[in-house]
Specification:
Rossmann fold, 49% helix, 63 helices
């Protein structure tokens, strides 16, 4: 089966193609017998398979997908939208036909197939009864007997899970385990019986492939796709390689989603119009919410492009495909019940058909429930459903996605409000077939298809028919089209259905008596299941007052068929129910009108049929008008039909005729006395509807009739639009000329301040503009946005209209309410010829709108390279103006953010400053260095144009700083090669090496050191790159720095060494490395930059300052900064989210501690929850220890006490424990100091102050 997505553009998934190419190039025996592509609904499995078979990418640079195309032996697409694709017979026959046509394998395969008699297997009966035998003997056996080709081939099967049910899947998994292998099949000669295949034929494609996948030739790789990754699939296809397409954690999947969004933005101008600085972040939310579901992204972006939703609503949209279906259904149908009724019928029909529905068939079937629906109205409503439906090349309608089919039938997701039943579709289809009772289709194929649909629909609709009744009804329809009604006598049950069928036929004397008996037996109570040929289940009553009773009576069917004899006999009965109405509000008279039976209409009216139904059931006259039958209209008018009756839209009969352009009927209704200036719900009169041209253009003679009857030519609708404005909107020049000649007000404006001239200027209608100007239309009118006719003409891009308006003296420098001049409008729309014309008339190139944007900036933001070149060439200084708009953009910055190297090069060549900065002081080179993709090419372009590689931002950071922080090795190498200072420091004293060390970029550290970076450069806190790497725990960076000669015992401004920082932060491996490289746990280097005076100190307490330095007590690590996410340069239309390099916060707590006077007693500031007993218990042990051992033991006891006390959460106990612990601590310290003094150990300032780790 062919793919419904063939020919659609495909972007991304290159990594999948590369993997598949690796499988087919894997030597004699592939590593896996096959590949399963897994992903949820909407992830693009079918599109991926389609691209494998019919690549859409250019062959100028062939990639993996083009090379894979030559490896495809056969393919098959399974889809619920195409019911025939789920049949095994269709699958087997399709594979055989494709293999036969293959240029390399086909000739030998066909020869072997004919030699073994396998051709006889490919009959529909054999393929349906014994699919396993056909697959094994007709496909596998010849392929296994072939000489193995020189390369591997692919067998592609998409939608494997579409063909299975849970019980079938379990059986398939069990069958796969016992299925014959390739060797068994070869030994048995290809016979399934000899190979002891599992009993029972396969029921679907999944079963068939699961049973025989182990028997495929070694040179044939099976590639299939499925939505579910469950145990049954794993058992059935054990050993297959699985490729997950929806794992959003994988970078290649994220890149696929990103490329898809960028492609949509690039290819859809309507989407680009929604893109601005505020909505750019919403695309990132959409990227996250989509969760690698391309159907979700496509549906939302299509809805935004079509104006159904706004891009700002993305934040409120659900994050699942089912949720966004419900969101869009509520948006489309909550305020338009009429559209939902039509959509419900159409969706039900597509579900019932199981294949694309021809447009004409869909219209006729939906018209069964909507008899007054015209084809033009149907087409307009279907156009509004383009998010849910799509048209095939052969003019058929099909659901937009398989997932929508499942969603519509699952009340859990679609809610009961939007639940669609296939039963309704089958009822519509059956009723549509009955409409052809008297005039069957001429083509035999159409008759056969209609008979099939009729039989299947009656059976599926739940009409309560037994199989024999279904067969008789199908034969009845066949006989009716060929032989006549004699077969009716064989129908015995149910009698009601038989009576309805009799009413549809010409009366025959031979069946008169039988029909009478049937009519008598039909008086018993009728169950809805017996007579369900209507579209709703409603009880049948005997109301004859014109109310809607719910069922279709024999009189209605006879009236539709125009059988006068049957109508006479039914009306002569005791319960004729002449004015009874069905569930759709149609009476027998309406059914006769629907069938176009003038004689039946006359007969019914003569028996007292009412031409005007009860309120809400005005059907007869609109039906006659819809048919365009003056004779039927005359009959109804002569019977007293009300000309002033209105439908649900408030339209009278004259309005309906005018809207359809029925000139003859307009004259008939006006002669009968129809009101000419009546208005509908939208405030439109018959004249306005004629100008609207809803269906067919109305003749000028009919318009003249309306004006002669007193129609107001300047009457406006609810929007303030007159007939002249509507004629200009429809570009009906003949009608416009007639209205102008009839003295229509040429300067009348609607509620938006738009006149006929403004409308024609916006549409670029040169002929209309000429005519309006000839009739002295005011060329200086402005709409409510302050736009002139010249501004609107510039948007349309019609240079002839612009030239005509300029000749009338319109100001080319006019600015609207937003400050946009005419040149702004033309530049933003990308009309280079109009811009050239305006520039020739003196338009200012440097004018700014209220947001500070120049025409050149608008052209760049819109991606209009031709207009940007024209404007930059006209005013070469405009590209180099350093001013910013209110968003901080210049043309050069805008081109950079859009990722357009062509625009960048253009502006730079026209004088733009390559060192231009944004409002944060960041240069373009800085931004390019921060880009994740494509930044190097832009950076190289900027450097070639003279950009400074050492230009710093407001914080002193150079492009090399940001490249080092974000790990952009390629960008860093480029900058260094172009003269970037590797030792440049920012405002905090940090170098590029410090930034790379902070982020753990070991490879960048090696690059910087190799190019002369100072290994021991210090920042404002006195920290070297080694100190920073030790704090962050980057082992590889520490090793690189130590190998380059970094000082392991360096002390920062407050006395911290790399070893102490690593221990404080819990980085054990880093601490061990530093010790191995000579770091001292307790001795600080006296020459450390920023440290205190010389001296030594304990490793536990930190180095102490000497006489000339401040205290060097240990402290916490360097201030931790959580960095803002680095910027990414994706492609055009993706705005930068630049990384803001972190500031080192001042360590005010340490400065405050140094300024406080030293405490007299305690040397350990241990905060204990419950440590008093521990300290007291160990006091006796301290007396027999050295001072250092005592301090260490006290610290150990305190840590143990902290661990035990942390489990207590009661506030009062904790406070009491803290007081007791402090007292015990001071007692222990006093004893310790006394013993140290007795031993002659000098007390130092460091002994009285310690900041805990």
């Amino acid at each position: 089966m062919d793919s419904s997505l063939r020919g659609r553009e495909f972007h991304c998934r290159e990594w999948v193609f590369d993997k598949l190419l690796g499988y087919v190039n894997a030597g004699q025996t592939p590593a896996h017998p096959g590949v399963v592509l897994l992903g949820e609904s909407g992830c693009g499995k079918t599109a991926l398979m389609t691209e494998l078979i019919w690549p859409t990418a250019s062959q100028a640079s062939p990639d993996a997908r083009h090379r894979l195309r030559s490896h495809v032996l056969a393919y098959y697409f399974c889809s619920q939208l195409y019911s025939h694709s789920l049949r095994l017979s269709h699958f087997l026959f399709s594979l055989r036909q494709q293999i036969v046509k293959h240029p390399e394998v086909g000739p030998a395969y066909e020869q072997l197939l004919r030699r073994t008699g396998g051709v006889e297997l490919f009959t529909y009966r054999c393929m349906n009864d014994s699919p396993d035998r056909v697959f094994a003997e007709g496909l596998l056996k010849p392929l296994l007997a072939l000489q193995p080709p020189a390369r591997h081939y692919l067998l592609l099967v998409d939608g494997l899970d579409e063909t299975r049910t849970p019980d079938k899947a379990a059986a398939a998994a069990a069958a796969a385990a016992s299925a014959p292998s390739r060797k068994q099949l070869q030994r048995s000669g290809g016979s399934t019986a000899a190979a002891a295949a599992p009993a029972g034929p396969s029921g679907c494609v999944f079963d068939l492939l699961a049973r025989h996948q182990r028997s495929l030739p070694a040179w044939l790789v099976l590639v299939c796709s499925s939505r579910r990754d469950d145990r049954r699939l794993s058992r059935a296809f054990a050993g297959f390689s699985k490729l997950q397409l929806t794992d959003a954690r994988k970078p290649q999947v994220l890149r696929d989603v990103q490329q898809f969004i960028l492609w949509r933005l690039d290819s859809n101008e309507q989407l680009r119009q929604h893109l601005n600085r505020e909505t750019a972040c919403l695309l990132n939310q959409l990227h996250i919410k989509g969760n690698a579901c391309f159907a979700y992204l496509e549906l939302v972006l299509d809805a935004v492009a079509q104006g159904t939703v706004q891009l700002s609503e993305v934040a409120q949209m659900p994050g699942t495909l089912a949720g966004v279906f419900l969101y869009l259904f509520q948006r489309l149908f909550s305020t338009d019940p009429e559209l939902w009724q039509l959509a419900r019928c159409l969706l039900a029909l597509l579900l019932a058909l199981g294949e694309p529905a021809p447009v004409r068939l869909a219209y006729q079937a939906v018209s069964v429930q909507n008899p007054g629906l015209s084809f033009a109205r149907f087409a307009a409503q279907v156009a509004r459903l383009r998010l849910l439906l799509r048209a095939t090349p052969d003019r058929c309608l099909v659901l937009a996605h398989n997932a929508l089919s499942d969603w519509l039938q699952d009340a859990k997701y679609c809610t009961p409000a939007y639940l669609v039943s296939q039963r309704l579709g089958h009822c519509l289809l059956a009723a549509h077939c009955l409409c052809y009772w008297r005039q069957p289709p001429s083509a035999p194929a159409e008759r056969a298809a209609m008979l099939r649909d009729f039989a299947r629909s009656l059976l599926a609709a739940g009409c309560g028919l037994q199989p024999e009744h279904l067969l008789l009804l199908t034969l009845l329809l066949l006989r009716r089209w060929s032989c006549g009604p004699r077969l009716l006598l064989r129908i015995r049950d149910p009698p009601e259905l038989r009576l309805m069928a009799i009413a549809l036929l010409n009366w025959d004397e031979a069946v008169e008596q039988e029909a009478a008996s049937v009519a008598a037996s039909a008086n018993r109570p009728i169950e809805p299941a017996d007579t369900q040929l209507s579209l709703e289940d409603e009880a049948v009553d005997g109301d004859d007052g014109g109310g809607c009773s719910g069922s279709t009576t024999p009189l209605m069917l006879a009236a539709y068929a125009g059988d006068l004899a049957t109508i006479d006999r039914l009306l002569a009965g005791p319960n004729s129910q002449l004015n009874r109405r069905d569930s759709g509000g149609y009476s027998a008279l309406d059914w006769a009108l629907l069938g176009g039976r003038a004689d039946a209409v006359t007969l019914l009216l003569s028996h007292g049929a009412k031409p005007d139904g009860p309120p809400g059931c005005w059907v007869a006259l609109p039906l006659a008008l819809a048919l365009g039958r003056p004779d039927l209209v005359t009959l109804l008018l002569s019977a007293g039909a009300d000309l002033d009756r209105v439908d649900s839209d408030g339209r009278t009969a004259l309005m309906l005729a005018t809207a359809r352009g029925q000139s003859e009927l307009i004259g008939l209704l006006l002669d009968t006395g129809a009101r000419v200036d009546a208005r509908d719900n939208g405030g439109r009169s018959a004249l306005l509807l004629a100008a609207l041209c809803l269906h067919e253009p109305i003749s000028v003679a009919a318009i003249q009739r309306l004006l002669d009857a007193g129609a107001d030519i300047n009457l406006a609708d609810a929007d303030g639009r007159t007939a002249l404005i509507h004629a200009c909107l429809a570009k009906r020049h003949e009608l416009m000329d007639f209205l102008l000649d009839s003295d229509a007000d040429v300067d009348r404006c609607d509620r938006d301040g738009i006149s006929a001239l403004l409308v024609s200027s916006r549409l670029g209608d040169f002929r209309a503009v000429q005519a309006l100007l000839f009739f002295n239309a005011n060329p200086h009118q402005l709409d409510r946005h302050g736009r002139s006719a010249l501004s609107l003409a510039a948007v349309s891009g019609q240079s002839a209209v612009v030239e005509a308006l300029l000749a009338r003296g319109l100001d080319e420098g006019h600015a609207d309410n937003a400050g946009l001049t005419v040149l702004h409008h033309a530049a933003g729309a990308g009309h280079a010829d109009v811009c050239q014309l305006l520039l020739g008339n003196g338009a200012a190139t440097r004018s700014q709108d209220s947001a500070g944007r120049t025409p050149l900036l608008l052209a760049v933001l819109s991606g209009q390279a031709e207009v940007a070149a024209l404007l930059a060439e006209t005013d070469r200084l405009a590209a180099g103006i350093p001013g910013h708009d209110e968003d901080g953009l210049t043309p050069l910055l805008a081109a950079f953010q859009l990722g357009r190297p062509d625009l960048l090069e253009l502006l730079l060549s026209r004088g733009a400053d390559p060192n231009m900065t944004d409002r944060a002081g960041r240069s373009l080179l800085y931004l390019a260095a921060a880009a994740s993709e494509g930044g190097c090419s832009l950076a190289s372009l900027l450097l070639d144009c003279g950009a400074s590689s050492n230009l710093a931002d407001e914080q002193g950071r150079t492009p090399l700083h940001v490249a080092a922080w974000l790990g952009r090795a390629e960008a860093a190498g480029l900058l260094i090669s172009r003269g970037a200072d590797v030792n440049a420091k920012d405002a905090d004293g940090g170098s590029a090496l410090s930034a790379a060390a902070w982020q753990g970029q070991a490879h960048l550290c090696q690059l910087l050191l190799a190019n002369g970076a100072e290994v021991d450069s210090v920042c404002r806190q006195g920290a070297t790159p080694l100190c920073i790497a030790a704090q962050e725990g980057h082992l590889a960076v520490c090793q690189v720095l130590l190998d380059a000669g970094a000082r392991a015992n360096h002390v920062d401004r407050i006395g911290r060494t790399p070893y102490r920082v690593a221990v404080k932060c819990g980085h054990r491996q880093v601490a061990e490395l530093l010790l191995a490289r000579g770091a001292s746990p307790g001795v600080a280097s006296s020459s450390s930059n920023g440290g205190g005076g010389g001296g030594s100190g304990s490793g536990a307490t930190g180095g102490s300052g000497g006489s000339g330095g401040s205290s060097g007590g240990g402290g916490s690590g360097f201030t931790r900064i959580t960095p803002i996410q680095g910027g990414t340069f994706n492609s055009q239309h993706q705005l930068y989210q630049h990384h803001q390099y972190p500031h080192h916060r001042e360590l005010h707590q340490f400065q405050q501690q140094q300024q406080q006077p030293p405490r007299s007693k305690p040397t350990l500031q241990l905060i204990l929850n419950n440590g008093a007993t521990v300290i007291n218990a160990n006091a006796s042990d301290l007396s027999n220890s050295s001072p250092e051992e005592a301090a260490s033991a006290a610290a150990g006891s305190a840590v143990s006490a902290i661990g035990r006390g942390a489990s207590r959460r009661n506030g009062d106990k904790r406070r009491r424990a803290a007081v007791a612990a402090a007292a015990a601590q001071r007692q222990a310290e006093d004893e310790l100091l006394a013993r140290r003094a007795a031993a002659g150990i000098r007390l130092q300032s460091g002994d009285r102050k310690e900041t805990a780790f």
